[in-house]
Amino acid sequence: MRAGGVVRFAVVDDASRPLSSIWRVWLHGDDIYAAVRSLAGEFKTSLHVSGRSRHAFATDEAAQRFLQPGRDRATSRWHRPDPQVPGGTLLLQIIFPEPALGASLSRYELPSGLVRLQPPPKNHVIYVSIVATAAGVKTEGPRFADRPTHTLASWRTPSDTTVWVVAHDALLTEDNLTALDNARRLATAVVDQAILPPRSDEQPSELRGFFILKTSDGVGRIIDHSMEFVRWSGASPAQDIG
Q: Residue 189: is its pLDDT beyond 90?
């Protein structure tokens, strides 16, 4: 267990080809951050020790490409929830549903030190969870129900809290499927208006993104998702927004 650090992870197939975005979670002092590795300089999730959390553009320049001038760089804010179990607080989940994984990228070079998550079984989902345990709590790591849970990283903060990054899989629920369907429709409505990069056999590309879920329990949640359905969508924005 180190005092501060970073972990990078992605869903990777048996041929070492990524099926998801590569995510980065890191610790700076007592504050925790998460972002897609390639976008960390533009958009990130911040979980501050003060209890303030937010999803936000990292710079005004990045925000100006998507927001009206003068708008707050934060797209959403919330406050850290109360501990769900004595001494333990679930702060954020990055979610990888099996139906949302993309095609293998045979020419993509994986970074060194990447934690490789095995693809989930059909109709399952991987949850990568960020959990904080209070000073004095003795545990070998958080556990979720009866599912095997794997520790990807753990760090001790200057205030003696321990931050855990753990992964487990579970069966997709009807609520999961409804959230996926709603997010896909909205994403098609918004992104279908953009100019998307062409796809070719010579230079294979995989358009990926993520959906930020609105939750009422104080836990931040993000769905990692292939955006190829957006590239080939023929629906107009008005039709999809309904």
A: no
